[in-house]
Amino acid sequence: MTFDDTAIDWLTGILAEAALAEIMPRFRRLGDGDIRQKTSAADLVTEADVNAERLITARLRGRYPQAMVVGEEACSDNPALLNGLGDADLAFVIDPVDGTFNFASGVPLFGVMLAVVVKGETVAGIIHDPVGKDWLIGARGAGSHIRHAHGSLEKVHVAAPASISEMTGSVSWQYMAEPERSRLARNQTKILSQFAYRCAAHEYRLLASGHAHFVVYNKLMPWDHLAGVLIHAEAGGHAARFDGSAYRPSHLGGGLLVAPDQESWHELRSELWAQ
């Protein structure tokens, strides 16, 4: 079965189903055995992540049995599941609980993310907010919208370009190696203000809806960025890896700078990396 835009409503439904059945019943109710470390004390997985991903995966395989399904938690156990994402005829990429550290800490700032990839190109992205019970949706060529809990659809657009001294943004310098780490940490003082949500789902929402200007990410896992970059682009924004090349589903490195437009991207690239 091939993917088309009419399936987006169905996809939003399964994300909401996973949130209702597996995520929200565990929010602020996790026991000691429900939270585990992956790579560090800041990199966690909970029973909500695992069970939500299983539910979404099962629904996707039921409707699209030939599609590739890439889930963050499944890939954590078996990284080889990422192989072929850039070449698959149809693939779905899932982050069942983006912002797991927040979720496990009882902070209501997390989301469910899903990207649709066709022959190496992201064609749709959905970010569901289980707390606000709404969706940020982007489809290639169709723009990006927030579908509110009460049913209305609101078109979103990135912030207007501004000088770097008037920009609000986020720089994930903590994931950089020296000397780039210190350079970015120092140069971010050139901007108006910064935010750090520890949740790409809500950071992309902030950008796509015009409430912030940019983000700098170093770690590129597809479940963290494919949906958000597509939504941001359809909201009028520009994103590229640090060397200026386009970000693709197959990319796991090279960093990512997300900005209101190409001119702003170049200004940020110059000023944030200045010696």
Give an account of the 3D structure.
The protein has 275 residues and is an alpha+beta fold. Helices cover 31% and strands 25% of the residues. It contains eight helices and 14 strands. A seven-stranded mixed beta sheet has the order 3-4-5-6-7-8-9, with helices on both faces. The protein has a five-stranded mixed beta sheet with strand order 11-10-12-14-13, with helices on both faces. Strands 1-2 form a two-stranded antiparallel sheet. α1 (8-23) runs antiparallel to α2 (47-63) and α6 (200-208) runs parallel beside α7 (222-234). The longest helix has 17 residues, at 47-63. It is globular. The mean pLDDT is 95.
Secondary structure: elements and pairs:
Layout: H1 8-23, E1 35-40, E2 43-46, H2 47-63, E3 68-71, H3 72-77, E4 91-98, H4 100-105, E5 111-118, E6 121-129, E7 134-139, E8 143-147, E9 153-155, E10 168-171, H5 180-187, E11 193-194, H6 200-208, E12 214-217, H7 222-234, E13 238-240, E14 256-259, H8 262-272
Helix pairs in contact: 1-2, 6-7
The biggest beta sheet reads:
7 strands, mixed
Q: Whole-Å distance between the termini?
A: 52 Å
Strand order of the largest sheet: 3-4-5-6-7-8-9
**Are there runs of 5+ residues with pLDDT below 50, and where?**
none
Strand/helix succession? HEEHEHEHEEEEEEHEHEHEEH
* Rg measurement, Å: 18 Å
Q: What structural keywords apply?
A:
8 helices; 14 strands; seven-stranded mixed sheet; globular; 25% strand; single chain; 275 residues; alpha+beta; five-stranded mixed sheet
